[in-house]
């Protein structure tokens, strides 16, 4: 892509470079290409690369690598793109020099590379490497000497005393013969008297924009000129001068033709309304990897996962890297980008930031030997072997199957199999001339059965099989595959480029349009959610990190459910944030970056179409419709050339200059190549009106670019990433620079940690955070899971930074295991104290249930064991994430990590001095930031691991005054949570305690308890029940304060208790806690109300109305919250101050006091009312239809509750009626019925609320507000009721 190219250059190429063997300095072994440094600054992948260095010397001299030099570059320097000699030298010949003899293959190799400067601007390099005969006698002698030394070493190896008997093959497979010179012949592959020695040389063009095809042609023709017997028409200097100074960049939307040595070269550039320039062959990437792998790699790039490409071919590394980043349009990769990683930069693989890098493979080592510093969040792409290793929990790209189907169709039309082509060598030759139209005509002739896809797709590939199924389901027929006639057959168009090139352009644009269309559809209404700043630019920049630039919650709430896992993570990336920043900074069309302008134009189009056919916000797949138009534009440019550059011509050279020897690329005449044409005689010849217009446009563009550069600078400053480092500097690699780089990483990690913790707290605290002044109310909706997953990734990156030796894929889990092992060893030694890893009693968590439950000990080791015991988690990365989630839920993350790092000996053993974990101040700040998570309640372990087995501990606490010492019945309990319930569990009556294991219940909500009424004394007064999750330590209290027994209280043998999570009692933790406490569950006061009516607290009508209002308000608020932020509805209905309690107060008010020793309950009143209504119906004294319907439903519900097999008492039945009435929106009807019922007159005093028509009407109005909500009751509340 051409993002960030240097705008000052309007020349096609900036430099011409020659690299190769410097005969003056002679042969120097290239230790860096042997891939190691010795100055102690880099030992990063030391095992692998010490091995490579050793191999470099073990190999025969012809196979070793030697240092190459930049021999010459023309011109010396251009102001807009300073020449970086180190970087260009490294990337032109990344492996250094290599030698060959006449017996070896010496085919020229082309590769391209990119140099990204620290400000993000890019320069492209295009290099052709070929072999020349070595003429220097010294070099040939040096090579011969190296061979003698090498042979002597090998001879010694063969004569080891352990040599096997003559004629028997030894372990190396070398045939043992009698010692003689002939034995060494197999090693001696260079003989100065017999062999010709060749050495690699490289010519390279450095250009501001990527025209790989055109540059390749120029270089190949220059090479051909020196290697052919006939000299070229003009001296080489003429052609190089021409391409450096006289060939301009084609203007946007135009094509340009210029002359190479033997044939014309054509290049074209898209207009400002088309997708940006891209000329690498996308088809190659799909051939190498297959559609499904490409899509997975694409997803990793969008989610800013570290990506490491691996191949023997430099051009493949470059093609895949450039292809993946260009398909991200309109988004841009924001992080470290080094498609070809020189050996001297291997320490960058240690970078704890997102990166996209390419690593050269020697083709012999297999993947298992490659030790990488961190793999927890790494996507490893072995290009040559068609393999991808993905990080865990990678979400699927939205509409993945349909997307694969659409891309496959496009590839098939060009003869590329969707699953890629493993035998790419032969395959390419066969496919070169293949077009789908040939297949179609073949099928017409009866030569082919089935669809063109069938021949490729029906390989054993799971995705493709699913794709086939999808094809059938959607009715897309591959028989009707969109087949385009090859435009070359189009009589009207005379093409100026060869057909292969046109096909590459067509395939590129087709695939790019399909990818761009996905984003256009997914983000068609993104502008609505951009939060424009009201501040001026400068204050916006200074507050950038605190600002929200996009309303993520609202955007996600509009998206189809299947998109959410991917989108919620993508919206958190730097890539997306930078895209939105650039949108905010562009106040008009002129300001917009090219990519943004093109994208916005497409989005506008989609929105206009959607007015007529609304498909936005559905997961309906919209195919791309812009391909033909885009292809036509390219064909037009390639058939009608807009501009022709000045032809190469003789230069002002002295006689005798410009001669050279055939077969050798010469040192050129620097005097004629050091500067462009001084007079205007050549430019005048080629300056028709359009070029002069071009100059004006150019000045205008430069003026605009100044603003763009400022804006780019602003965005970079504003963001200045968590990474703080955009790009490694290729030249200076002193230890101090490496140390400084590592320091930047440490600072960046700390900054990222600060931003993440703040973002997570704001998200979690929701509206409360807004009141505390932390930003908008709408930012709470991004999936909590996404944020926690990104915190886990950050922790993995911190733990991977500066590792001495890598063990396992998760550095954090590996550290925890080392710690566990060292502590367990200490504890087995006699000096060890107490059980392993436990903190002693002074640090125990105090439990609010007093002595009822012994407190859980705070133990890092115990938590690690809990995770080890979970069979469902198979990988180290998964275990580390589960441990982080558990520690967050227990509010122990900071404390556990502090304890882990307090073992300094272990940390020193595992980490290098520069590692983040050994920078004491930063480490302290980091732990302090994590401490802030204790301010909120997370259920990130309980809610994610829903199928694991968890031990629970239950204690029933009887009343102290009326203890259950004489109690004879057998008690039972059933615990319910948000995920499931336990079923009935018998409790031993002597201990009233039980520990059981069952599948995760989720957050606990209710406990049903009762007894079997057996024995002489079956009456039991229970104070409360306490239940604790033995893994997370969450303790729930279920207050009761009522009797269970016949003939006492309301005669109930079982009760439903509503629970609340108990908060830890230590002051410091309470002070930190800012989340509002959960509602209190039913307390003693409410439950003792009906036992002795005379002692109840008297509430006046105003207080009762207020109570009802608050109860209803709580329920309304509950439904207005996003689903993931809602608390327990059971608490709002049956808890302290809940709806049941509020209506109880209404019916208690003005209730006539019964005779002494007799308790009357509300249920008694309701039963009498039921009898009255039923008798009226029997006597057919019905008022109107509405009244009749309401009385019938009331009586039906009463009968159902009374006939339930459960032994619930009268208050329990009242609670059930209220819950069912709320569920079915009947409460207001029933209140109206009861207010008019004659029974009310008999049982209530005149002052009772239920007799005051005004108050009853307002009560009915309040209850009616529940009608708009869909209330779902927990199963435990309505067990045994068949309504």
TrEMBL record:
Which stretches make up the RUN domain?
782-946, 1130-1278
User: What SMART domains has UniProt attached to this entry?
Assistant: dDENN, DENN, RUN, uDENN
GO terms classed as biological process: retrograde transport, endosome to Golgi
Which keywords annotate this record? Guanine-nucleotide releasing factor, Membrane, Phosphoprotein, Repeat
Location(s) in or outside the cell: Membrane
Q: Where are the stretches annotated Disordered?
A: 676-700, 823-850
InterPro entries annotated for this entry? cDENN_dom (IPR001194), dDENN_dom (IPR005112), DEN5A/B (IPR047278), DENN_C (IPR043153), PLAT/LH2_dom (IPR001024), PLAT/LH2_dom_sf (IPR036392), PLAT_RAB6IP1 (IPR047277), RUN1_DENND5A (IPR047294)
Q: Which CDD domains match?
A: PLAT_RAB6IP1, RUN1_DENND5A
Tell me which GO cellular component terms the UniProt record holds. Answer: cytosol; membrane; trans-Golgi network
UDENN domain boundaries: 50-593
Q: Where is the PLAT domain?
A: 950-1058
Recorded GO molecular functions are:
guanyl-nucleotide exchange factor activity; small GTPase binding
> Could you say which protein family the record assigns here?
Belongs to the RAB6IP1 family.
**Protein name as annotated:** DENN domain containing 5A
Name of the coding gene: DENND5A
């Amino acid at each position: 892509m051409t993002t960030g190219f240097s705008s000052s250059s309007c020349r096609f190429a900036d430099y011409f470079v020659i690299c190769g063997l410097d005969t003056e300095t002679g042969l120097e072994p290239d230790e860096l290409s042997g891939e190691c440094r010795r100055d102690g600054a880099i030992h990063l992948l030391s095992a692998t690369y010490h091995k490579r260095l050793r191999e470099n010397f073990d190999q025969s001299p012809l196979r070793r690598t030697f240092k190459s030099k930049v021999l010459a570059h023309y011109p010396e320097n251009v102001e807009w793109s300073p020449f970086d000699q180190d970087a260009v030298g490294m990337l032109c010949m990344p492996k250094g020099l290599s030698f060959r003899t006449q017996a070896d293959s010496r085919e020229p190799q082309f590769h391209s590379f990119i140099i990204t400067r620290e400000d993000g601007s890019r320069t492209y390099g295009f290099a052709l490497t070929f072999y020349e005969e070595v003429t220097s006698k010294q070099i040939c002698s040096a090579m011969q000497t190296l061979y003698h030394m090498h042979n002597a070493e090998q001879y010694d190896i063969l004569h080891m005393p352990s040599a096997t008997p003559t004629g028997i093959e030894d372990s190396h497979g070398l045939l043992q013969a009698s010692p003689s010179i002939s034995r060494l012949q197999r090693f001696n592959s260079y003989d100065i008297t017999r062999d010709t020695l060749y050495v690699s040389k490289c010519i390279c063009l450095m250009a501001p924009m990527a025209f790989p095809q055109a540059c390749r042609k120029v270089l190949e023709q220059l090479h051909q000129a020196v290697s052919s017997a006939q000299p070229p028409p003009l001296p080489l200097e003429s052609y190089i001068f021409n391409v450096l100074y006289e060939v301009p960049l084609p203007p946007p939307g135009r094509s340009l033709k210029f002359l190479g040595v033997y044939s014309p070269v054509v290049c074209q550039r898209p207009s400002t309304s088309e997708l940006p320039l891209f000329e690498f062959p996308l088809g190659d990437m799909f051939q190498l990897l297959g559609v499904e792998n490409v899509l997975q790699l694409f997803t990793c790039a969008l989610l800013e996962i570290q990506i490491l490409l691996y191949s023997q071919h430099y051009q493949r590394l470059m093609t895949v890297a450039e292809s993946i980043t260009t398909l991200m349009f309109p988004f841009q990769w924001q992080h470290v980008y080094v498609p070809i990683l020189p050996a001297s930069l291997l320490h960058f693989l240690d970078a704890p930031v997102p990166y996209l890098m390419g690593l050269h493979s020697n083709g012999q080592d297999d993947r298992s030997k490659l030790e990488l510093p961190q793999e927890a969040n790494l996507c490893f792409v072995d290009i040559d072997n068609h393999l991808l290793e993905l990080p865990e929990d990678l979400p699927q790209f939205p509409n993945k199957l349909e997307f694969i189907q659409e891309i496959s169709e496009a590839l098939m039309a060009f003869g590329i199999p969707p699953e890629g082509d493993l035998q790419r060598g032969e395959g390419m030759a066969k496919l070169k001339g293949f077009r789908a139209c040939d297949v179609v005509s073949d099928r017409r002739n009866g030569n082919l059965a089935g669809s063109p896809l069938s021949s490729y797709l029906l390989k054993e590939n799971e995705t493709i099989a699913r794709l086939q199924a999808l094809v059938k389901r959607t009715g897309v027929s591959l028989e009707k595959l969109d087949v385009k006639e090859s435009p070359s057959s189009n009589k009207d168009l005379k093409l100026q480029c060869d057909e292969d090139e046109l096909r590459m352009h067509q395939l590129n644009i087709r695939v790019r349009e399909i990818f761009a269309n996905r984003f256009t559809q997914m983000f068609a209404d993104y502008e609505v959610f951009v939060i424009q700043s009201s501040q001026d630019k400068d204050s916006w920049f200074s507050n950038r990190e605190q600002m929200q630039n996009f309303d993520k919650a609202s955007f996600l709430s509009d998206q189809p459910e299947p998109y959410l896992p991917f989108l919620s993570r993508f919206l958190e990336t730097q890539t997306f944030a930078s895209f939105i920043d650039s949108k905010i900074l562009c106040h008009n069309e002129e300001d917009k970056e090219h990519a943004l302008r093109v994208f916005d134009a497409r989005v506008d189009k989609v929105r206009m179409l959607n007015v007529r056919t609304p498909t936005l916000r559905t997961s309906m797949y919209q195919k791309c419709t812009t391909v033909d138009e885009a292809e036509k534009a390219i064909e037009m440019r390639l058939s009608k050339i807009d501009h022709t550059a000045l032809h190469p011509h003789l230069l002002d050279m002295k006689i005798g200059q410009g001669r050279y020897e055939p077969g050798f690329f010469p040192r050129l005449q620097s005097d004629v190549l050091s500067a462009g044409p001084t007079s205007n005689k050549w430019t005048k010849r080629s300056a028709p009106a359009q070029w002069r217009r071009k100059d004006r446009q150019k000045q205008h563009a430069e003026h605009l670019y100044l603003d763009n550069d400022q804006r780019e600078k602003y965005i970079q400053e504003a963001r200045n990433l968590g990474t703080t480092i955009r790009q490694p500097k290729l030249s200076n690699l002193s230890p101090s620079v490496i140390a400084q780089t590592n320091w930047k990483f440490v600072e960046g990690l700390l900054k990222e940690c600060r931003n993440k913790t703040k973002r997570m707290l704001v998200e979690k605290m929701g509206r409360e955070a807004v009141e505390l002044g932390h930003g908008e109310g709408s930012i709470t909706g991004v999936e909590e899971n996404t944020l926690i997953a990104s915190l886990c990734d950050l922790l993995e990156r911190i733990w991977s930074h500066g590792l001495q030796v890598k063990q396992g894929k998760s550095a954090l889990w590996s550290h925890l295991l080392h710690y566990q092992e060292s502590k367990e060893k200490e504890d087995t030694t006699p000096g060890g104290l107490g059980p392993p890893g436990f903190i002693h009693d002074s640090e125990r968590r105090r439990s609010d249930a007093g002595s009822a439950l012994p407190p859980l000990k705070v133990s890092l080791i115990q938590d690690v064991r809990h995770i080890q015991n979970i069979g469902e988690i198979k990988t180290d990365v998964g275990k580390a994430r589960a441990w982080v989630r558990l520690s967050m839920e227990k509010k122990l993350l900071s404390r556990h990590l502090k304890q882990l790092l307090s073992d300094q000996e272990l940390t020193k053993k595992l980490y290098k001095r520069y590692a983040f974990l050994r920078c004491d101040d930063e480490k302290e700040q980091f732990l302090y930031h994590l401490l802030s998570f204790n301010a909120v309640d997370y259920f990130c372990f309980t809610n994610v691991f829903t199928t694991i087995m968890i031990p629970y501990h239950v204690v029933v606490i009887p009343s102290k005054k009326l203890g259950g010492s004489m109690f004879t019945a057998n008690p039972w309990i059933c615990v319910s949570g948000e995920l499931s319930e336990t079923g009935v569990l018998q409790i031993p009556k002597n201990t009233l305690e039980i520990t059981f294991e069952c599948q995760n219940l989720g957050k606990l909500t209710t406990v049903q308890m009762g007894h079997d009424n057996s024995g002489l004394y079956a009456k039991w007064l229970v104070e409360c029940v306490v239940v604790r999750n033995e893994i997370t330590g969450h303790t729930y209290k279920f207050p009761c304060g009522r009797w269970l027994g016949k003939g006492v209280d309301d005669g109930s043998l079982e009760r439903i208790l509503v629970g609340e999570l108990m908060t830890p009692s230590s002051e410091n933790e309470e002070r930190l806690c800012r989340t509002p406490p959960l509602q209190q569950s039913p307390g003693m006061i409410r439950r003792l109300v009906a036992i002795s009516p005379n002692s109840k607290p008297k509430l006046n009508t105003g207080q009762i109305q207020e109570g009802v209002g608050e109860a209803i308000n709580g329920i309304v608020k509950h439904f207005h919250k996003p689903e993931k932020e809602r608390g327990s509805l059971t608490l709002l209905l049956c808890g302290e101050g809940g709806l049941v309690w509020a209506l109880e107060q209404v019916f208690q008010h003005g209730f006539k006091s019964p005779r002494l020793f007799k308790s009357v309950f509300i249920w008694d009143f309701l039963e009498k009312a039921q009898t009255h209504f039923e008798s009226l119906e029997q006597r057919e004294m019905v008022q109107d239809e509405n009244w009749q319907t309401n009385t019938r439903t009331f009586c039906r519900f009463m009968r159902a509750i009374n006939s339930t097999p459960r032994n619930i008492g009268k208050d329990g039945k009242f609670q059930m009626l209220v819950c069912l009435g709320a569920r079915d929106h009947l409460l207001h009807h029933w209140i109206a019925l009861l207010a008019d019922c004659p029974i009310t007159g008999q049982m209530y005093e005149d002052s009772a609320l239920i007799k005051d028509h005004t108050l009853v009407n307002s009560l009915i109005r309040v209850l009616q507000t529940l009608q708009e909500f869909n209330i779902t009751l927990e199963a435990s509340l309505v067990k045994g009721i068949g309504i």
